[in-house]
Each structure stands twice: as C-alpha cells, then as structure tokens.
Amino acid sequence: MVKLWHLDRSPFGWKVRLVLAEKSVPHRLVIPDNKSEDPAFAKLNPFRLTPVLELEDGRTIYESTVINEYLEEAYPDPPMLPKDAWERARVRMIEDTADQYLYAAAREFRNARFEYTPPFLVRKRADAVDHKALEASRVKLHEHLSRLESELAGRTYFGGAMFSLADAALAPLLTAGLRLLDVLPDARYPLIAAWSARIVERGSYIASAPKEPLRIRE
Question: Are 101 and 126 contacting, i.e. CB atoms less than 8 angstroms apart?
Fold first, then answer.
C-alpha cells in the first residue's frame, strides 16, 4: 500500500488526496512530526515539504503535480486527463498556472489581512493591514478567476466532461480557500459557482476534505 505524507489543511495535500480517492487507490495517510528538522523526512524529500508519496518499495515522489501525474499513469482508471493531446495540454496548463500564480495571489491576499496560526487565520488590526498588497492581490485573483470562468464555458469540468487533474488542483482553493476569504462566491462567476456545487457533492471530495479546516479567529 502506498503512503501519503501530508498535512491535513494543505491544499496541495488535499489535491493529492482527491486523486487518490477518485481513483480508489488504497493508501495510508501519515502526518510528519517535524518535517523541517527530522533527518528521516529529509530522505523522503530533500526539500522537506509535503506532500510526498511513498511507494511500497520505499521510493518517493514529491511535488503534488508530479505525484498526481504518476497516479494518472499508474492507476489509469478512471482517467483524469483527456485523450486528445491538446486537451491534455490545456488541462495541464490550468493546473500549472493555478499552482504557480493563482495560489500565490491567494497567499498574498490572505497575508495582507491575516496572520497564519494553524488552524486559524487571525485577523490583523486595521492599522496593520497591508492595503497596497491587498488591492494588488485582489486584482490578480479576479484576473485568474475571470480566466477560469471562461475555461468552463460549455464544459462541465475543467477537463470537459471528465473530472480532471485540473479540477482536483483547483477544488481546495475555489470551494474552500477563497470562500473563507470572502472572494467567492461572486456573481461575476456563475460557472465557477455551478462547478463548485458539483464538486462538493463528489464522494472523493467529501472523503479527502480536511478533518479540521482552516477557520478565522477575530
């Protein structure tokens, strides 16, 4: 049985748990005790980050996108990438840009208003809010959301008719993270709202969701 080293509230851990659940891959979840200092964990991932997928023979795979690509190849049923080469590239572009840019903008937006003290976001005093960073990141977020809204035009999922690796990558942020930050729902994005309603009803989503989600503490 494969082992997933993860953190419960990490959107990247959640992204991998979603794919494991979607593909019904038997697995064991492990939360590292001290990934920053434990030399044993450094052997799993020299960058000391989660998630890490540990195979039955002890080999490891890290970086959530790479892990999910491996799962797609090793457990091809149900498929989570389209057959058409361009469509596969389109799904990969959505996932990659979400990881690189959308999540970065969301972190900037969050950090401008809150201190991160898991499992809470603690709201900063009004005079401590970085309004310049807040507004700049808000603009970036809505640019990304507008683009994602257009990707859903005529499609049930970002993968078209299929729940894809891009859908798994975006689910934590669009259904939870940006809702917590009051960015979503937004009337400008009805397709994202309809997509989110479908996503949260999937068995894989329910099974993989954090046991103790992030909350706001005033």
Answer: no
